[in-house]
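Render this sequence as a predicted structure.
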Amino acid sequence: MPVRNKIKINLNEYREHGCWAVLSDRKYFHVGNLCVKRTLRKHEWPSFGHGIVVPPPTTFPQRWKNDAAILQYLSERTNIPLPKLQCVFEDDGAFYHCTEFVEGVSMGDLGEEDQKVVTRELLQHVATLKSLRSDTPGVPVMPVVPMRVLHYLPVVPAVPHESLLCAPERICNVHLKHNVCWRPRDDVKGDFVFCHNDLGQHNVIVDPKTLKINAIIDWEFGGFWPEWFERPYWEEACGPSTNPQEGEGEDDYRERCHEWLVSHCDEVVVPHLATLEEKLGSRAATPDVDSSNTLSDSTSEEAESASQEVESASQDTSKA
């Protein structure tokens, strides 16, 4: 089996330093005081053998740009507790999103009585969101913050940001729109309010001692939407379900959301991020191999060589 396939299957066994979770479409890191998440590079895409590779959704870069723009927008206009944005950037086929790490527990980890205390504060923040209004739908276009890696290096240019709406996953899963964002049409006018659109207990980080909200996170589906888009998922222990069969009235609600998108927005199909090699239009040269130095058929020798290559690949990745 090629080493690359071994890495696909065992991503959780060969994590970079600081990586605490590997999902089928992204990785999470806690490095110092930073919370970093990034998309998977193509060689990390899930594989089920026999050449079957499952590409992850392509919309994460736009979702995380939206999140970054929203964090800036809300931090300048409200007192809603938010994680402090550090930067977003693209690197060799992967997209990164970095904020300061927020200490605390999720609202869902608290007891029922403590959740009632948190809900009272949360409703105040929801009211603040509803006070932010626009006559057009969309995401505030903000100059997504540039990044300086080291103080003596030049600043990396800010990431360009287009106002595209990203539909919540509960809608995408029903209508198989995993690689689509939505551009509101120019003639769409109305009364739109600021929505989070994924405001479940898992996205409310709380100080377990004071029961004060430390941060509301994951704003990637947010923006100016019809007010009815925002559902009170914080009242449900399981949060917004992606299963269309769960939740009273959820199927009708999801269909209504999809109908609004189709009626008022144009689909924007998002391609996968290109690697640096693909952008340069080049292919890596294949080195000549001396047949006298090829691996023997010995299982033990092949396993040892594969193990060394996996370790080397893991070390290279950690330096990225």
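Summary. The chain is about 30% helix and 20% strand. The domain at 11-144+157-240+248-277 is CATH 1.10.510 (Transferase(Phosphotransferase); domain 1).
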